[in-house]
């Protein structure tokens, strides 16, 4: 089932404190990430067990203790699920490493979550209102420009896909009203 504008508008990216405290098995991580990202994935799976195993093998996510994934791994997997939609996976890895040199995973993840919600507010809300579609200038900090650029790119890509699938800009949202 394809994403509706209303689902995107209502999407709330979990903040660090909202992520599961209890470590999860691979299948639970897949279920959790697919559930929370469903509103913005336009019918595509955000994560699979194989993807998680590959990201672990490639060193993109921190090593796990035992067979369960903790909060850090889940946070990075959520970021990967979004960023891989607009960047090659090697660039996603470099971006995550760069951000983690500047701040903690907790800080970086919360900036990511807020950035996703801001991108939705700035890009999708005006589309739902059927108004002119200006993209407002965004004030960003030097330490977060990459996060905000990718968040906006992801939402713009999602919007472009929806426009094409709907048969034009003026048709977006016709089925969800």
From TrEMBL:
Mind giving the lineage of the organism this protein is from? Bacteria, Bacillati, Bacillota, Bacilli, Lactobacillales
Top-level taxonomic group: Bacteria
To which species is this protein native? Facklamia lactis
Tell me, what's a Pfam family for it?
A: DUF1836
Q: What is this protein called?
A: DUF1836 domain-containing protein
């Amino acid at each position: 089932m394809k994403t509706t504008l209303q689902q995107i508008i209502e999407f709330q990216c979990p903040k660090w404190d909202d992520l599961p405290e209890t470590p999860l098995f691979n299948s639970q991580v897949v279920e959790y990430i697919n559930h929370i990202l469903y509103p913005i994935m336009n019918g595509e799976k955000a994560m699979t067990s194989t993807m998680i195993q590959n990201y672990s093998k490639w060193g993109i996510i921190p090593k796990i203790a035992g067979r369960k994934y903790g909060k850090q791994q889940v946070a990075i997997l959520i970021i990967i699920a979004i960023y891989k939609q607009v960047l090659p996976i090697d660039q996603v890895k470099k971006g995550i490493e760069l951000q983690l040199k500047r701040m903690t995973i907790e800080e970086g993840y919360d900036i990511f979550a807020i950035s996703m919600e801001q991108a939705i507010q700035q890009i999708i809300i005006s589309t739902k209102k059927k108004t002119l579609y200006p993209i407002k200038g965004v004030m960003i900090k030097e330490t977060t420009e990459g996060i905000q650029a990718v968040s906006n790119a992801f939402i713009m890509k999602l919007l472009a896909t929806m426009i094409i699938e709907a048969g034009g800009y003026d048709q977006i949202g016709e089925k969800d009203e």
